[in-house]
Design goal:
The complex is a heterotetramer of chains A (493), B (170), C (142) and D (128).
Chain B (H helix, E strand, L loop, with lengths): L1 H10 L3 H21 L3 H23 L14 H18 L11 H4 L1 H13 L4 H9 L1 H30 L4
Helix pairs in contact in B: 1-2, 2-3, 6-7, 7-8
Chain C lengths: L4 H24 L7 H19 L1 H7 L2 H24 L14 H39 L1
Helix pairs in contact in C: 1-2, 2-3, 2-5, 4-5
Chain D lengths: L6 H19 L3 H20 L22 H32 L4 H8 L14
The chains are: A mainly alpha (493), B mainly alpha (170), C mainly alpha (142), D mainly alpha (128).
């Protein structure tokens, strides 16, 4: 019986964990609760995904008001996949965060940190699960507000400015999304996304709808940090506490991407986006710009965390590149890369968090020779770096392979070449780490270091292992992504 | 009137005046909302915009210089961005149904049931309350959570500072 | 400002009325404009008013920090609790129909309690934010 | 295209433009937040104005009235206002902390302070 209520429990359980933490005011308890709650969300998400993996749809009417009058949770193969991803990362990072947060956040703030952490999780899961346009905005704000706070809890004072900039950009983005949803609402009279989609044909090329599309695209792209709108991301990632960087890098932008896909394919419909408008070409241009410019900027960074933050902007470019093909293969590639990049970046930032824990900073000038004293951490970073490049045997290869396939399918061999060239830039920035870690003499400060605590190392390596495992056994990820892509293209809603 | 105040805010560099003007702006907005029959919203806007926001701004201003520096960068690019947004909005809104058109989709679809059956189904004559608390009650739970997040977030941001002051400052 | 007798007496009266007005807005929300959020703001404003007249420490004695922080959490819990009550009684989450024998009564009951939840959290948060900001200013002055 | 019938939208657009302009063009962190708040209020009008029916009354059911303005936008905007003020509170708390850490609430001064000797990419311009 209770399985009927999984869609809502998935979101509400982390949500009520937050006030409980505030009442308890105890850091250790809060950590335990955060871990348990993330784990339970993972279990529920897996159960949900198992149910919808065959292409069926679960609809849950909150308050027993039938949609479109009430708010509906709607799980299909696309967001089922995403729910698993988000809760998986959340669980791993929750275990990881204990030592990391203990070192980076003042003790009396621990319970506040975990309160924000579960709220952010609840927000992200809520965005993924909801079938209502305005409810999406509300949960977007829950996750955004909590992530602003999480970022501002970083040790460096620049974290404050980074958080402020993210707040401004994020709120502009959210307001744009509200304007977009509002225009859709004014034209259709409904807020339910599925209902909206049913009422759009016939008016889909009127001016308000096109304007709504523009506002939604810009707003969501601000949130997902697509190239010209990415300015908030590098600082936010670089100065946030390590656990936060790992969590947000692996989930927040991915959820925004899902929102983009949801609006594009499930609400507006393929034909409006790609046939009536040159969205494909725009996305293509921006994606390529993201890949090349952000990768190049990454190469010149002094701080390893910032380097990989810029690399995130570039990798987001690959994902949107997959979307821009508007083909089954392209969309599959995008969704696979969404999953794979989450694993890779999660692993990377978790390992860097280990370095930061021991060393205090991760600037290139400080980490010379670190491989001698932290061999496991360094090797993990190299493996994850290989995945960023797309070396066979890692998840990165799988997604690049599908991207190249999609490019060739579209008859654009030059794009395939560009994708490979983009990977070469990744070789350069990953090499910078290898050079510093393996080929420099350790300084006195570095020589005294040890590996990070077991809980951090083990969870980080779990992610690295996942990067390799899913690189070798692709049945699960490709299968899930292909199902999701087919669902989107088939007008899943 | 609102437009005039907005433009004055944009030109004014004394932050104190800006904040007070913002309060006035909120009150004007509230009157407009009453004229548009949105009494619940007007009440909230008056208490939030003119009340809470102004108090918050004033508390924050206590620390600042009060006078804004002349902006260093050229205002050309921001103006273009703002105008582009406005143009997109204008483009979109021109296709919308005209003001007070009872045939517009928003009056015909979901809202119709709220007005016709809301009071009977929920036993609450104020339909805004009925929709807010029942039909879309989950949004309101989300809204309360947002408020909660902000409250705890402010605690997290401002409390830490005190412990720092006492202890480990270099 | 602490020595003006008239001010203090009037203020006390005013505060009583403000709390009363908050309750009116809260419970009249079914029939006229108003509801948990507005009532929460007004109730918080009453305490803020008290703090301005009698000083922040006095207000903190009347409504201590731990109480405010608990209020912040309790409201959300109450709201979600109503949701879970619907769940336990065999409905969906936030299902008010099952809260009482008659569906309309159930709706009434549900709306009443969630509005109380909103009131508690909003009043708590507004007060907490005021305390945090005002507390800092005091610190600055010495 | 009925221009007069869209008067409320013109006001909305004007507010949106000025809000966004204040938000982006100004370097003062507090003023940016004022701009943000104004930008958000434009959305309130965008939602609520079309819900008005001339001759209608506030959506509180009573026997005397037959036509009511649309309640749904009101509900949405109530939520939006609350979210807006929550964001504002958080933003101001950040400003207070920034002021503490940097001694300034001007964006340019703050970015200037952080530039040397750390790194030079605060504005995404790679200078080395």
């Amino acid at each position: 019986m209770i399985s009927l209520h999984y869609p809502i429990l998935n979101v509400v359980v982390p949500l009520i964990a937050a006030p409980l933490m505030v009442l308890a005011r105890h850091g250790g308890f809060a950590w335990l609760l955060a871990t348990v709650v993330s784990g339970s969300s993972l279990a529920v998400s897996v159960a949900l995904f198992a149910e919808v993996a065959d292409g069926s749809v679960i609809s849950y009417a909150i308050g027993s008001w039938a949609p479109p009058w009430g708010i509906e949770y709607r799980i299909d193969s696309v967001n089922g996949f995403l729910l698993v991803l988000v809760s998986l990362i959340a669980s791993v990072v929750a275990v990881y965060s204990r030592e990391s947060v203990a070192a980076e956040v003042a003790p009396e703030q621990h319970y506040l940190f975990y309160t924000m952490y579960v709220l952010c999780l609840a927000g992200l899961l809520g965005i993924a699960a909801t079938g209502d346009g305005f409810n999406l905005f509300v949960f977007l704000e829950i996750s955004s507000l909590s992530s602003y706070v999480l970022i501002a809890l970083g040790r460096d004072r620049r974290a404050l400015m980074a958080s402020y900039q993210y707040l401004i950009m994020g709120t502009i983005g959210a307001t744009f999304i509200v304007i977009g949803v509002g225009l859709l609402f004014l034209m259709t009279g409904t807020l339910n996304l599925a209902d909206m989609a049913a009422r759009l044909p016939g008016i889909s090329e009127t001016r308000p709808i096109l304007a709504a599309l523009a506002f939604l695209t810009v707003g969501i792209c601000l949130k997902l940090a697509l190239f010209p709108l990415h300015l908030w991301l590098p600082n936010a990632y670089a100065y946030a506490p390590s656990a936060v960087t790992a969590f947000l890098a692996a989930t927040a932008t991915k959820v925004s991407l899902y929102v983009l896909l949801r609006f594009y394919y499930s609400v507006f419909g393929e034909s409006v986006i790609f046939a009536a408008l040159p969205m494909g070409a725009i996305l293509l241009a921006l994606s390529l710009a993201a890949v090349f410019i952000a990768s190049t900027v990454a190469i010149f960074q002094h701080d390893v965390k910032r380097l990989f933050a810029y690399s995130s902007v570039a990798q987001i470019g690959y994902i949107t590149l997959g979307v821009s093909f508007d083909s089954l293969t392209g969309l599959t590639a995008a969704i696979v890369h969404l999953f794979n990049h989450a694993l890779t970046k999660g692993a990377l930032f978790m390992l860097l968090g280990g370095v930061a824990l021991r060393l205090g900073a991760v600037r290139f000038q400080d980490i010379g020779g670190i491989a001698r004293v932290m061999p496991l951490t360094s090797f993990g970073i190299v493996l994850a770096g290989l995945s960023l490049i797309g070396v066979p045997g890692t998840v990165g290869f799988v997604s690049k392979w599908y991207l190249v396939l999609a490019a060739l399918e579209a008859g654009a061999w030059w794009l395939a070449v560009l994708i490979v060239l983009g990977s070469l830039l990744a070789v350069i920035y990953v090499w910078r780490f290898v050079e510093a870690a393996y080929f420099r003499e350790p300084s006195a400060a570095v020589a005294r270091l040890r590996e990070p605590p077991l809980s951090m190392l083990a969870t980080s390596w779990l992610m690295v292992a996942a990067c390799v495992y899913f690189g070798l056994d692709t049945s699960l990820t490709i299968g899930g992504a292909a199902q999701a892509a087919a669902g989107l293209l088939g007008g899943g809603r | 009137m609102i437009a005039v105040v907005t433009i004055v805010i944009a030109r004014q560099r004394n932050l104190f005046a800006v904040v007070i003007l913002f309060g006035i702006y909120s009150f004007l907005m509230a009157t407009v909302l009453v004229a548009l029959d949105a009494v619940d919203v007007a009440m909230t806007e008056a208490s939030v915009g003119a009340g809470i926001s102004t108090i918050l701004f004033l508390s924050a201003l206590h620390l600042g210089k009060g006078i804004e520096m002349k902006p260093l960068h050229k205002p050309f690019l921001p103006l273009m961005v703002a105008l582009a947004t406005g143009a997109a909005l204008a483009y979109g809104t021109l296709g919308l149904p005209a003001f007070s058109d009872p045939q517009a989709p928003i009056h015909q679809h979901v809202a119709k049931r709220y007005i016709e059956d809301g009071a009977r189904e929920t036993g609450v004559p104020n339909i805004v309350t009925a929709v807010l608390a029942s039909y879309r009650g989950y949004d309101t739970l989300g809204e309360v959570t947002v408020v909660f997040t902000a409250g705890i977030g402010v605690v997290a941001l401002l409390r830490r500072l005190r412990s720092r002051k006492r202890g480990d400052k270099p | 400002m602490r020595n003006y007798l008239v001010l203090r007496v009037v203020a006390k009266l005013m505060i009583a009325f403000m709390i009363l007005f908050a309750l009116y807005v809260q419970f009249h929300g079914d029939f006229g404009p108003g509801g948990g959020f507005q009532a929460g703001v007004i109730a918080a404003a009453a305490i803020v008013f008290y703090a301005i007249i009698f000083g922040l420490p006095a207000a903190r004695e009347v409504v201590p920090d731990w109480l405010v922080e608990s209020m912040v959490a309790a409201g959300v819990l109450l709201y979600a609790g109503v949701g879970f009550a619907g769940l336990l009684l065999g409905g969906n989450f936030l299902d008010y129909f099952v809260l009482a024998g008659d569906p309309v009564d159930g709706q009434h009951r549900g709306i009443f309690w969630i509005e109380v939840g909103v009131l508690i959290t909003v009043a708590g948060v507004m007060l907490k934010i005021f305390y945090m900001f005002a507390g800092r200013e005091d610190g600055d002055r010495g | 295209m009925n221009v007069a019938g869209h008067f409320s939208y013109w006001v909305t657009i004007l507010i949106a433009i000025s809000g966004l302009y204040i938000l982006i063009a100004r370097g003062n962190l507090v003023k940016k937040l004022v701009g943000l708040a104004i930008f958000q209020t434009s959305v309130y009008l965008l939602y609520i104005a079309p819900g008005k029916l001339i001759g209608g009354t506030a959506p509180i059911v009573a026997d005397r009235f037959a036509v009511y303005s649309n309640p749904l936008p009101h509900v949405l905007i109530l939520t939006a206002i609350v979210v807006g003020v929550a964001t504002l509170a958080l933003g101001l708390a950040l400003v207070v902390r920034i002021k503490e850490a940097y001694g300034s609430i001007e964006e340019d001064e703050i970015l200037e302070q952080d530039r040397p000797p750390f790194d030079s990419s605060a504005n995404n311009n790679v200078s080395n």
